[in-house]
Amino acid sequence: MDIERIRKELTRLDLDGWLLYDFQGINPIAREIAGLTETFLTRRWFCLIRREGSPTWLVSRIERGQFANVQGEVRAYLSWSDLQQQLNDVLGGCKAVAMEYAPDGAIPYISRVDGGTLEMVAAADIELVSSADLIQWCQARWSTQQLATHMEASRHLNTARELAFRFIGESIRDAHRITEYDVQQKILEFFAQN
């Protein structure tokens, strides 16, 4: 979890925090940001990343051991009412928090938090903001090397396209009958050589 990068974005977006949440794998975005993609979890967990300070985790007491190596403070809840109270405590001082949801369902790829959990957070007098911009900034940015690789692949694809149309044009001019399979093989031959 790149805490410093997230904090910079929280400051830029004027948000108090990013509240990651998952239950039984419904939020792969939160799991990836939190570094829990390989951890088998069956209970709800939250992680609040604030602009300042260490992250605060709220996890089921049953699964607390699964969070032994996470960065920040780990709190455990035992019951539903305990979860609600501790979540309110964790969110104390926050006014606007990002979560994986999209207003009006505009971006379904982002909408990973169930309505009841959103209501529970909003009941703590928190303004909920979509984490879409945070996700894009923290996960979907390419490094210089990734961009260079993408541009190289793009050049190869463009060359393959030009080759395919040249092959089709020559075949029509020479009255050779070709099929889509023939064009496919020409493209595959190009990629095998490059």
Please indicate the count of domains: 2
Which band does the percent of strand residues land in? 15-25%
Number of strands: 6
Query: What is the overall number of helices?
Result: 7
Ends distance = 37 Å
Order of helices and strands: HEHEEEHEHEHHH
Helix residue percentage: 40-55%
Residue-averaged pLDDT: 92
Which architecture name of the largest domain does CATH use? 3-Layer(aba) Sandwich
CATH class assignment of the largest domain = Alpha Beta
Oligomeric state: single chain
Biggest sheet details:
6 strands, mixed
CATH topology of the largest domain, by name, is Creatine Amidinohydrolase, Chain A, domain 1
Rg value? 24 Å
Query: What is the general shape?
Result: elongated
Overall SS class? alpha/beta
| CATH level 4 superfamily of the largest domain | Creatinase/prolidase N-terminal domain
